[in-house]
Amino acid sequence: MSLKNISEKTLQLLLKNGAQQAQVISSHTLLEELQYENNDFTLLRSVEDQSCDLTAITEKKKGSYSVSRTDDHSLNEAVAKTIEMAKSAQEDEAHAIATEKDQVEKAYENFESGPKEADLDEMTKLIQHFVRDTHQKYPQIGLRTIGVKFIQSKIHYLNSHGIEVTSSKGYYSFSVMFNANEKEKSSSMDFDSLSFTEFDERIQNLLAPENFGDKFKHTISHLHAHKYDKSFTGKAIFMPKCWYTFVQMINGHLTTGPLLAGTSKLQGKIVEKVGSSLFHIESRPHSPLFAVPSIMTGEGIFTKELTIFDEGVLNTYLVDLYGRNKLGLKEVSNFASHLYMPAGKTSLEDMISDIEEGILIGRFSGGAPNSNGDFSGIAKNSFIIKDGKIAQPLSETMISGNLFDLTQEIYDTSAEVYQNGSFYFPYVATAGITIS
């Protein structure tokens, strides 16, 4: 059966069996994967999966169920379980299926992006050239696992209010697990990945500083890492990928769960200035900066450009359909993907030269911050800055601070940006980090 036929048949069954409102998402995913380990190609596989996600509302009760098979028996069983879950759920008037037909942009009702099939020759060459160039330029780097995937995702969305969307997206993902080795010394493992749609100049130059070049240099330097001999509270520069992690933690306070529970530190602060004027975060789900456009939420709501923090001012919550209804808001806004933070005007080198004593943080390993935003964990792939220069690579070093204090204390952002196909961020300089 086609995805459209699966959706139509399943929706009819849901309505016939007692659903008053319903939606169905039928999907087909093709994965072509090439993997390289221990100096040789170890895997070439092609996998296809088909699935169906069902949601039903009856008597203000909601049930959802997913099934990985789409034969008649499996779909009938999935319908019965979805209805059963709805009937046993708690009644809540805020449950709903999307009816915002006016939000549907005609250009996106039949959406296609990216390549339609894998180029295995280019995938193979990419790995071969990357391995060769890395061995030549960074002989201390051990390439543990390298993978190139081609993913094509096809989706058909249909709901009982007449919203119907078909989308097909194709893209590549390149990932590397690596560490550094020198005689008896070995650094910790690290991992990074890029998403893209074309084997263009950027992808052909994976050892450029903004891709893997700087990461490999940092990893090699950590063969000689050691703890700093003092504790202090001072300035910090977050590498882009690490800062993205912290922004995701901050955005978590804008989502439905914490807002309904009353635990969000940002509740009631719409249009208030909650950060430095340099704290500017946008969601750009359709931007060509990113490999895979996000045109619609899983609830059938079409995405749009969002400015989440506008030069430090909180502009919006990030709520789904249930949260919108429960909180009495005007619209759904939970499409905070494809995050963008504009580049600054200061070079990273100049940002470092401005710091008498501080830290350059590459990665954070720790538990989730508490409800007040306090965090504590280990700074990995990080460096002490002393007298305007990178002084030493750090071994396991504790850092702590508060998420919301950090946003207030941002005083500079770099001209250099990190762009991996999923987000676009500069280096961010702030104050108030405790190193111990």
Question: How would you describe this structure to a colleague?
Answer:
Helices cover 24% and strands 38% of the residues. The chain has 436 residues and is of the alpha+beta class. The chain folds into two domains: 3-222, PmbA/TldD superfamily (PmbA/TldD fold, 2-Layer Sandwich); 225-436, no CATH class. Strands 9, 14, 15, 16, 17, 18, 19, 20 and 21 form a nine-stranded mixed beta sheet that branches.
Stretches with pLDDT under 50, minimum 5 residues? none
The CATH C-level class name of the largest domain: Alpha Beta
Mean pLDDT metric = 94
- What would the CATH topology of the largest domain be? PmbA/TldD fold
The number of helices is: 10
Per CATH, the superfamily of the largest domain is PmbA/TldD superfamily
Radius of gyration: 24 Å
Which second-level CATH architecture of the largest domain applies?
2-Layer Sandwich
How far the N terminus sits from the C terminus, by CA atoms, comes to: 60 Å
Strand content: 35-45%
Largest sheet: 9 strands, mixed
The backbone outline, from C-alpha atoms, is globular
Helix percentage range: 10-25%
The domain count comes to 2
Count of individual beta strands: 21
Structural class: alpha+beta
Features:
8-stranded mixed beta sheet; PmbA/TldD fold; 436 residues; 2 domains; alpha+beta; 9-stranded mixed beta sheet; 38% strand; 10 helices
